[in-house]
Design brief:
Layout lengths: L2 E6 L2 H16 L8 E6 L5 H11 L4 E5 L3 H8 L11 E6 L18 H11 L5 E7 L2 H7 L6 E7 L3 H8 L12 E5 L7 E3 L13
Length: about 210
């Protein structure tokens, strides 16, 4: 259970961190041959810019528009369980903007938000690694309470109130720029602050 939740209000830095996360996964042996699917609910050029970059580097990328987001989640729940490797990386951009999440699914009588939580918690067993990207901790937690199913949380550029909402009342945002904060479900340590890279630099991948 190491799906990643990325919380970032600074678009430039979030773009650079998300790019680094996905490319790091793609070069890992468990992701050999994996495709990338971007479920884009952001309503800007963020997703298309990432897709273009990854396609240029030789990866298979599909961009799913907002109006097809829910069908992607439902289809994912029909994939067989017991996967031994990852067939895809699914990046959800600003899923909280999908209003139908509060609606009831007519087949299961659960809210569509509950279906997404199930999708995330079962994704690894179905061969999909999920990276959820939100502009704030509040937006993320309205979509996935307590970020269930996400084993790691990365933040970039959150204001103090959002930072404590993500990492607890006794934590403070890191000083300096650029900075990211990382924590995971198996770590016994407090959130770690890292200096990632120059946000303007484009990571290169050797294939």
């Amino acid at each position: 259970e190491q799906n990643i939740a990325l919380l970032g209000s600074n678009r430039e830095l979030t773009h650079a961190v998300l790019n680094s996360i996905v490319l790091s996964l793609l070069i890992h042996p468990l992701f050999d041959g994996a495709a990338v699917q971007i479920v884009d609910c952001a309503g800007d050029t963020f997703g298309s810019a990432l897709a273009e970059s990854w396609i240029e580097q030789g990866y298979s990328v599909e961009v799913v528009p907002k109006d097809s987001a829910m069908s992607t989640i439902v289809d994912g729940l029909e994939e067989p369980v017991g996967a031994t490797r990852f067939r895809q990386i699914v990046v959800f951009l600003d899923l909280h903007r999908l209003r139908e999440l509060s609606e009831q699914d007519q087949r299961t009588f659960k809210t569509k938000s509950e279906l997404f939580v199930r999708y995330v918690t079962e994704s690894v067993d179905r061969g999909a690694f999920v990276v959820g990207c939100w502009s704030s901790a509040r937006a993320a937690q309205t979509t996935v309470p307590r970020l269930r199913g996400f084993g790691a949380t990365v933040s970039t550029g959150l204001v103090p109130a959002e930072y404590t909402a993500a990492f607890g009342p006794h934590t403070e945002p890191p000083e300096g720029f650029p900075r990211i904060t990382y924590t995971d479900s198996v770590s016994v340590h407090r959130p770690r602050t890292l200096v990632p890279f120059d946000p303007s630099a484009r990571p290169a991948v050797q294939r």
